[in-house]
Design brief:
Helix content is 78%, strand content 0%. It contains eight helices and no strands.
């Protein structure tokens, strides 16, 4: 059962994303709309990225056979436990300290930049590229433009998101 969950979770993301968008008027009004939209937008990205385990196969192929790479369980833990609950935690904090919304903008922007960098480096599509460009960049910009934050919050947010992405790479690069 666990293997099916780890292998098929991405197929639930589009309907859940649409449900969340429809629920915003009822449950999300305590936080800014662009921040709230980050979770369903991220879910659409996760579907593009993880349908048929495409991102793990891309990353593992990029790393080579001498590295452990990411398993379906790693992908599930990273995306469901860390991303979804990370976003929910930011929603909670932003309900009384809105400036921390930029943390989500950095999560979106840095993830999008990584997808674009891989596309340029390898001169081909990588799973998550289109939603990174078409959804992440505009939404991150909307958050940056509409929610003011101090320079300290910007710096802390950017560093935290870079560290989170580095941790994933360190996990994937373990020797086989």
């Amino acid at each position: 059962m666990q293997n099916r969950l780890f292998q098929n979770w991405a197929y639930a993301t589009p309907p859940i994303a649409l449900l969340l968008i429809g629920l915003y008027p009822f449950i999300g009004t305590a936080i800014a709309l662009p921040l709230f939209l980050s979770l369903p937008v991220y879910m659409f990205h996760q579907y593009e990225e993880h349908d048929d385990n495409r991102f793990a196969e891309f990353l593992n192929g990029m790393l080579g056979a001498d590295k452990k790479g990411l398993s379906p369980a790693h992908v599930w833990i990273i995306n469901v436990i860390f991303v979804w609950f990370f976003l929910l935690a930011v929603f909670h904090v932003a309900s009384f300290m809105p400036s921390w919304s930029v943390l989500v903008a950095y999560l979106l922007a840095i993830n999008g930049v990584l997808h674009v960098a891989w596309a340029v480096k390898f001169r081909k599509y990588n799973p998550g590229l289109w939603t990174g460009i078409l959804l992440f960049f505009p939404l991150a910009t909307w958050i940056f433009v509409t929610i003011p934050a101090t320079l300290t919050i910007h710096i802390v947010s950017a560093i935290l998101v870079i560290v989170l992405h580095a941790a994933i790479l360190i996990l994937a690069r373990r020797p086989a």
